[in-house]
């Protein structure tokens, strides 16, 4: 970590000093700003790539260095992070408002890591502008408020800090509420703890994509012949693409190898589609086909849900759901009033676990020490929380059993497709809904 961050610091400092780049108002060396942004990022993460990118975040925008230069020196990941926080608008695109809209649209689609770096940049710039130019600060706060609309899934601590800066200073500078109406001043405080649900769910979406589990789709030229039959038997292919003029435009199945089938609507997904989309596609089709650069090149079958990456993803969702359950129970049964719903034996086990965690200086609630099955069964006893599982207790208990079954099958490397596919589909919908928090 130290080597990467140190190299990034040296590279950025030299690049900006080479052009005598200084801060607009104070005329301080520009590396003061870079250092501030890097320290803000480092206060919320130990990710060396993020901290390095924080040092480098203005290099391409303000110095002769190119993205290719950054990639050669620091690799693709850091070059992409720098690209995410670099303005994409050009002077020829129009006035300041138009350019800021273009840059805002760009930022709305970047990763959580990129948004976190941008939040750090906004915080430091805002501090400087508020101190040095209160008049321009009115414009900057308005633009910052609009940017925060698309940065809400960056680090929650930095988002909360940036939000407070806008709220407090907008009021102090007598900005009319309509100027910053796009930003909700009643935005809920980020959940406590290091891993807020919306942040983690978005991380899952950004981390696992279709190309990670897809297999190359072997293909043959049209017209079809008996060669296809023998090829599928020899190589044990279940599906083959059919090429027309060099491009795969259909497919055949082992069950009927001489009948070309057309791709159905929604059966083709992009290579960067998230796992939720993969599962929803496989919910309607036995195979989904993966497209890269407008050409079908890969295939995913339901059996591929057994892939280690998919199993990791599913286990992560189960963890997210469990994290979501705890505050719901605490709200429905305050002051541990849920205890009456748990057998004395299960309660003793939870108390023993809590005692051990406290001995290890790991503060935790008694509720968090219950097993997942106990938490699920507590939820079933609350009428409003039944919506998470179904409209009746009978249905809810069935879903609880399915949930436990999937978790156990994942934990013990058992088959998860044959018996658990319906629940996997529901979990895919769950991760999508958490991503919209």
Topology:
Elements: H1 2-18, H2 31-42, H3 48-56, H4 59-62, H5 67-74, H6 76-84, H7 96-108, H8 112-132, H9 134-150, H10 156-172, H11 197-207, E1 215-216, E2 219-221, H12 226-235, E3 239-244, E4 247-253, E5 256-262, E6 268-270, H13 275-282, E7 287-292, E8 295-301, H14 308-332, H15 344-359, H16 372-380, H17 393-411, H18 421-435
Parallel strand pairs: 2-3, 6-7
Antiparallel strand pairs: 1-8, 3-4, 4-5, 7-8
Helix pairs in contact: 1-3, 2-3, 2-8, 3-6, 3-8, 5-6, 7-9, 8-9, 8-10, 9-10, 11-14, 11-18, 13-18, 14-16, 14-17, 14-18, 16-17
Walk me through this protein's architecture:
- The chain is of the alpha/beta class.
- The chain folds into 3 domains: 2-190, Orthogonal Bundle (Hypothetical protein af1432), CATH 1.10.3210.10; 210-304, CBS-domain (Roll), CATH 3.10.580.10; 308-435, no CATH class.
- It is 55% helix and 9% strand.
- It contains 18 helices and 8 strands.
- Strands 1-8-7-6 form a 4-stranded mixed β-sheet.
- Helix 3 (48-56) crosses helix 8, helix 9 runs antiparallel to helix 10 and helix 16 packs antiparallel against helix 17 (393-411).
- Residues 178-200 and 433-437 have low confidence and may be disordered.
């Amino acid at each position: 970590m130290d080597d990467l961050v140190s190299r990034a610091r040296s590279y950025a400092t030299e690049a900006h000093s080479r052009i005598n780049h200084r801060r607009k108002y104070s005329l301080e060396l520009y590396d003061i700003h870079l250092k501030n942004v890097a320290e803000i990022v480092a206060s919320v993460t130990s990710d060396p790539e993020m901290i390095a990118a924080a040092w480098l975040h203005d290099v391409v925008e303000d110095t002769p260095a190119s993205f290719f230069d950054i990639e050669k020196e620091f690799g693709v990941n850091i070059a992409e992070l720098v690209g995410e926080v670099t303005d994409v608008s050009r002077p020829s695109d129009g006035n300041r408002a138009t350019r800021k809209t273009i840059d805002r649209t760009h930022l709305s689609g970047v990763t959580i890591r990129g948004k976190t770096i941008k939040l750090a940049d906004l915080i430091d710039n805002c501090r400087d502008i508020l101190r040095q130019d209160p008049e321009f600060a009115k414009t900057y706060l308005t633009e910052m408020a609009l940017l925060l609309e698309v940065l809400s899934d960056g680090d929650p601590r930095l988002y909360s800090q940036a939000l407070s800066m806008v709220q407090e200073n907008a009021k102090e500078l007598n900005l009319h509420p309509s100027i910053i109406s796009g930003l909700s001043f009643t935005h809920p405080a980020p959940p406590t703890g290091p891993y807020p649900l919306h942040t983690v769910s978005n991380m899952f979406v950004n981390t696992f994509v279709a190309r990670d589990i897809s297999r190359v789709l072997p293909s043959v030229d049209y017209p079809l012949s008996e060669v296809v039959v023998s090829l599928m038997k020899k190589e044990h292919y279940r599906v083959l693409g059919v090429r027309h003029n060099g491009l795969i435009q259909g497919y055949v199945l082992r069950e009927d190898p001489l009948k070309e089938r057309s791709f159905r609507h929604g059966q083709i997904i992009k290579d960067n589609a998230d796992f939720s989309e993969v599962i929803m596609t496989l919910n309607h089709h036995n195979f989904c086909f993966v497209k890269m650069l407008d050409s079908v090149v890969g295939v995913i079958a339901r059996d591929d849900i057994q892939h280690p990456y998919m199993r990791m993803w599913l286990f992560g969702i189960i963890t997210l759901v469990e994290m979501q359950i705890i505050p719901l129970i605490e709200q429905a049964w305050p002051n541990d009033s849920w205890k009456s719903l748990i057998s004395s034996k299960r309660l003793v086990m939870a108390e023993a676990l809590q005692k051990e965690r406290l001995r290890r200086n790991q503060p935790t609630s008694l509720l968090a020490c219950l097993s997942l099955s106990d938490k699920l069964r507590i939820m079933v006893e609350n009428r409003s929380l039944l919506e998470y599982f179904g409209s009746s207790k009978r249905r809810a208990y069935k879903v609880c059993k399915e949930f436990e079954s999937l978790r156990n099958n994942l934990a013990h490397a058992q088959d998860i497709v044959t018996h658990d596919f319906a629940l996997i589909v529901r979990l895919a919908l769950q991760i999508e809904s958490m991503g919209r928090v």
